[in-house]
Amino acid sequence: MKKYKTGRLGYNDANKRYGLLITDLWEHDGFHCGERLEVQIDGEWVQTRMEMNREGDWYLVDTPFVGEGLEFLRVRIPEKD
């Protein structure tokens, strides 16, 4: 069974990217375009990836979440073997 690191999205001012926070510590300090993760929507885990639009706003592909709407979303990434 696959293991995940689960936390919330937060904006990292140091690198201008959204990253994964676990208990207010950076587990992943900034996602890059195309990087995959899962977001919890209505209790279900949905696969997505981080991208940036032409206006310079970060968003999660195939979800309604963009820009400041990403803050505090529950997300997870697979643990590395």
Write a compact overview of the structure shown:
This protein has 81 residues and is an all-beta fold. The chain has strands spanning 4-12, 17-22, 25-28, 36-41, 44-52, 58-60, 74-78.
What is the rounded Rg? 12 Å
Structural class, by secondary structure, is: mainly beta
Give me the number of helical elements: 0
Task: Tell me the total number of β-strands.
Answer: 7
Residue windows where pLDDT falls under 50 for at least 5 positions? none
pLDDT averaged residue by residue: 96
The shape, in one word, is globular
- Fraction in beta strands: over 45%
> What percent of residues adopt helix (DSSP H or I)?
under 10%
Major sheet, described briefly?
7 strands, antiparallel
In angstroms, what separates the terminal alpha carbons? 12 Å
- Topology as H/E string? EEEEEEE
How would you describe this protein?
By secondary structure, the protein is mainly beta. 0% of the residues lie in helices and 52% in strands. The chain is built from no helices and seven strands. It has strands spanning 4-12, 17-22, 25-28, 36-41, 44-52, 58-60, 74-78. It has a seven-stranded antiparallel sheet with strand order 3-2-1-7-4-5-6, with no helix packed on it. Strand 1 (4-12) and strand 2 (17-22) form a beta hairpin. The chain is globular, with a radius of gyration of 12 Å.
